[in-house]
Amino acid sequence: ASVQNLAQGLLLKEPVVAQAPPGRDPADMSDEELLGVIIDAKKPTGITLRALREAQRRGIPELVNATVYSLQNPSYVVRIETAKILAELRDKRIVPYLVLSLQDEESAVRGHVAKALGMIEDRSALPSLNNRLKEETVPEVKIAITRAVNRLGEP
């Protein structure tokens, strides 16, 4: 499954976004402008991180919808921050997208995604976590996956 296929499955609707004027600080952006920054893979990492944190601070309801895109951001730092935020939000609608991110090329992203899946506590992630555990070669990620599996409980 790809992100595009899942998005077409309408698990999460497309967020309403707006283009922020160049140079505007995320703290001064509208909710729609923040979401526009978050979904734009071409924005600099620093601005995207600030937009993610500001959107979380404000409790913007469509933040989860926008994270579908930030989980695919070229910056692994953005992908990690997205996983951390999703762990705190604990919205089960994002689980299918997080499961895809268990295959991320960066081990740190995989570890944070596993932690997020454990914190969201949706047992539907167990098969994917168990499959990733069998393939994972990085010890720290194996630990994160094992903790998530233990938190969710074996089927």
Give the tags:
disordered N terminus; 9 helices; mainly alpha; 155 residues; 62% helix; 0% strand
How would you characterize the overall build of this protein?
The structure is a single chain. This protein has 155 residues and is an all-alpha fold. The chain contains nine helices and no strands. It has helices spanning 3-8, 31-39, 45-58, 63-70, 76-89, 95-101, 107-120, 126-135, 139-152. The radius of gyration is 15 Å and the shape is elongated. The model is unreliable at 1-10 (pLDDT under 50).
What does the average pLDDT come to?
A: 91
The largest sheet is: none
Portion in helices:
55-70%
How far from one another are the termini? 23 Å
Rg of Cα set: 15 Å
**Helical stretch tally:** 9
Shape: elongated
Q: Determine the strand fraction and express it as a percent band.
A: under 5%
| Parts with pLDDT < 50 across at least 5 consecutive residues | 1-10
Order of helices and strands: HHHHHHHHH
- Overall SS class: mainly alpha
Beta strand count: 0
Topology, pairings included?
Blueprint: H1 3-8, H2 31-39, H3 45-58, H4 63-70, H5 76-89, H6 95-101, H7 107-120, H8 126-135, H9 139-152
Short characterization:
The chain has helices spanning 3-8, 31-39, 45-58, 63-70, 76-89, 95-101, 107-120, 126-135, 139-152. It has 155 residues and is mainly α.
